[in-house]
Amino acid sequence: MSTAKLNSLHTLLQHELQELLSFEQQLTEALPQLIEIANDEWLKKEIAGFESKSRRHIETLKEAFAELGMSAGDHQCRAMAGLIDEALELGKRDAEPHVRDAALISILQRIGHLGMAAYATAAAFAHEVGHHQVGERLKQCWKDENEANSSMGSLATRWVNFMAAHASTGQS
Q1: What confidence tens digit (pLDDT) does each residue in 48-74 have?
Q2: Band of the pLDDT at 172, cuts 50, 70, 90?
Q3: Is residue 53 left, alpha or beta, with left meaning phi > 0 and alpha meaning psi from -120 to 50?
Q4: Domain boundaries, position 65
Q5: Structural domain includes residue 169
Q6: CATH of the domain at 18
Q7: Beta carbons within 10 angstroms of residue 45's beta carbon
Q8: Which of 54, 82, 168, 172 has the fewest CB atoms within 10 Å distance of its CB?
């Protein structure tokens, strides 16, 4: 957490928005590497589809900062940094490709859950302090995160987990 004093829900909202902006920027930056880590073509397409949503969320967050008269500052969401590091480390591991895809989806779903929690929290804070339009836009970002997470989960349960379970690694 930054060193700014959290003396009101308004300052906490600013912190949450800073977390979200960093979250989205880190995701956007990591997407090409995450696509490279993926083996399955459907998974690659799913990950590639995150870019337009993430860029739209970045614009929504920048608009919120401007509308609320807040500074985006220079903040890093450490939770997102840790999840991205975990995903990039996965790409360096010796792993059966289908099992790697299942592991990547697991990490991507954790990223999605972090996003859903953060957007829901920020939307609630915005509504509570009377910034209802900002709150509604943040709620839409939450819906986007939820949709992406559901789609990723469906891909896992329809295909990727099956392929991982039936992968031949030569181990018993």
Answers
A1: 999 999 999 999 999 999 999 999 989
A2: very low
A3: alpha
A4: 9-163
A5: no
A6: 1.20.1260.10
A7: 12
A8: 172
